[in-house]
Design brief:
By secondary structure, the chain is an alpha+beta fold. The chain has 8 helices and 23 strands. The strands form 4 sheets. The chain has an 8-stranded mixed β-sheet. Strands 6-7-8-3-9-10 form a 6-stranded mixed β-sheet, sandwiched between helices.
Length: 360
């Protein structure tokens, strides 16, 4: 068990700033996901924690000890890379045992620890196999065992499932989360996949352009995104741009009373927060596509100004391309210049051809 504290971390490559004033506290046994698009700085942060990159400024502490300038082998961290980074000329046993041999442990102690690590990752009896004889998922398990066998205080995972197919990725992330919880090891996990972050993390750090947009538990992040970027990056979100005039967000299909200053704003609506009703009016929104996902039907709707929304409906609903509909919403968020202005539930008064909304 260990605590990780990152203070004002910054990393520049020539004229490019990859990480800018990043701070984070990670508690004992916590699994924190660093989530963001390519180039957001998440892997650079992980590599600085592991000692594979030196920060331009800032500090990294593990259990109160400053490790900012220590080399990777002197840090109590273990890192699993996306590429596995296994040695093809060594069998599974020797790949896992390599770090233990550098510590000059006895042969019996090495055997015991490697066997325990293999059993932990579900590969008991695989020690004699060559790494090229393993599947991608098995190779990633070996890479995980090689890190865990050294008993690090902090486990670092850099998009370890990115090269695997979806079903295997889902299975392995459940296994890794189970192992992490059983060991109680403090873990940082880098991914650009929001599903992985939502499924695995105790907390998620959303990064953009090397800076932190929001840090929260997955459910809070999904239901209460504090910036327009986070709202669009986590889950599916519909956005409508219009002006607030006289305390009303004025869009042809969504008129909303809001207690914010006049000016341009962006209305954010989750697909599951929208409701559809058939309409007989030719001057109404229209269905452009309905996709059956089994558990629900996702309906694409084109509004009268050309904007498009996605609406989640019940699996037994029947919507046809070209059908005119009315829209109603049960929840919203309003943003300006990437910052949250207002949010809430919406009692709905439906008017032919449009939905009129007022704040509770």
């Amino acid at each position: 068990m260990a605590r990780l504290k990152i203070e004002s971390l910054r990393k520049s490559f020539a004229a490019t700033t990859a990480v800018d004033d990043f701070s984070l506290d990670v508690g004992d046994g916590e699994l924190v996901c660093l989530l963001g698009p390519s180039g957001s700085g998440k892997s650079t942060i992980l590599r600085m924690i592991g000692g594979f990159e030196q920060p331009t400024s800032g500090m990294i502490r593990i259990d109160g000890q400053d490790v900012t300038r220590l080399s990777p082998e002197r840090r109590p961290t273990g890192m699993v890379f996306q590429s596995h980074a296994l040695w093809s000329h060594m069998n599974v046993f020797n790949n896992i045992a390599f770090g233990l041999k550098l510590r000059s442990l006895s042969r019996g102690e090495i055997q015991r620890k490697v066997d325990q690590a293999l059993e932990l990752v579900g590969l008991a009896g695989y020690g004699h196999r060559q790494t090229f004889q393993l599947s991608g998922g098995q190779q990633q398990r070996v890479a995980l065992a090689r890190s865990l066998v050294l008993e690090p205080k902090i486990l670092l995972l850099d998009e370890p499932f990115a090269s695997l197919d979806q079903h295997l990725r889902e299975r392995l992330r459940e296994e890794v989360r189970d192992i992490q919880q059983r060991l109680g090891i403090t873990t940082l996990f880098v991914t650009h996949g929001q599903d992985e972050a939502l499924a695995m993390a105790d907390r998620i750090v959303v990064l953009r352009n090397g800076q932190c947009e929001q840090v929260d538990a997955p459910d809070v992040l999904y239901r209460n995104p504090q910036t327009e970027f986070v709202a669009g990056f986590i889950g599916q979100m519909n956005f409508l741009s219009a002006n607030v005039e006289g305390g009303r967000f004025r869009h042809p299909d969504f008129t909303l009373d809001v207690e914010v200053q006049d000016g341009p704003a962006v209305l954010a609506l989750r697909p599951e927060a929208l409701r559809l009703e058939p309409s007989d009016s030719p001057d109404a929104a229209g269905v452009t596509r309905a996709t059956d996902f089994g558990s629900h039907i996702m309906v694409d709707v084109e509004l009268r100004d050309g904007a498009r929304l996605k609406v989640m409906t019940a699996p037994d609903a029947r919507w046809q391309k070209g059908q005119t509909v009315r829209l109603a919403a049960s929840a919203f968020a309003l943003y300006r210049q990437n910052r949250l202005l207002a949010r809430g539930g919406l009692p709905v008064e439906t008017v032919e051809g449009r939905s009129r909304h007022a704040l509770a």
